[in-house]
Amino acid sequence: MPVRPRRLKSLALAVSTVLVALTAPALTATPAAATTTAYDSTYYKNAIGKTGASLKSSLNTIISSQTKLSYSAVWEALKVTDQDPDNSANVVLLYSGISRSKSLNGGNVGNWNREHVWAQSHGDFGTSAGPGTDLHHLRPEDVQVNSTRGNKDFDLGGSSFTNSGGSLTDANSFEPRNAVKGDVARMILYMAVRYEGTDGWPDLEPNDAVTNGSVPYHGRLSVLKQWNEQDPPDAFEERRNQLIYTTYQGNRNPFIDHPEWVEAIW
């Protein structure tokens, strides 16, 4: 019996569908949707509608108007910005997810200390007022976990470790737990926009390497972009951004307000 034209067309469509399914890359995250905030007509008004280098430059101008804290003042600030919403006596540790007493800040085993998400050595800015004390990338973390992370770039893969909370590490990279992957990405990219080498500090930039060491770069950009999309800002991150803006530094992390700006710039 001859195959009718309609049946041939259906067969061709079915074969085409199978071939596309076999060859198309798997989507790992949905691109961040465009957002609007109460600050778009005021704080961000000179950035709205821009993309690429123009957007990055506008955001740098906006967020560089900032009150700088001393490194000692960071201790008390973190007790407010990172307070456990379920226990006001505690802070939540970034990579571990552990809720720990605010009073246990220090440098001993069992304490929490000040983790520089953009590693200090990536630009050698230390703990001086400026990038070394910028709350937008400083978070509380267990002393030993902080040491395990060290100055490693961020990437996928590795093994678990004590108090990891689901975070992983290997010889040259660190992967934070799923719940804060986007937080880490947005903190790194905030630093890359805020510090452009024009105010006495290094020009911090993201790249796709995991061997940056002491140069003013942090990786891996391709993974950070993926994390920004997979883990959008949550209430904890948004509250933290607001507190830093209203109480401490007077500037905002634009990628918490507009996650889609990551793709617009990079």
From TrEMBL:
UniProt feature coiled coil, ranges: none
- Matching Pfam families, A to Z? Endonuclease_1 (PF04231)
Query: What range does the record give for the signal peptide?
Result: 1-34
- Which keywords belong to this entry? Endonuclease, Hydrolase, Nuclease, Signal
Q: Does the keyword Hydrolase apply?
A: yes
In its UniProt record, a GO molecular function of this protein is: endonuclease activity
> Which protein are we looking at?
Endonuclease
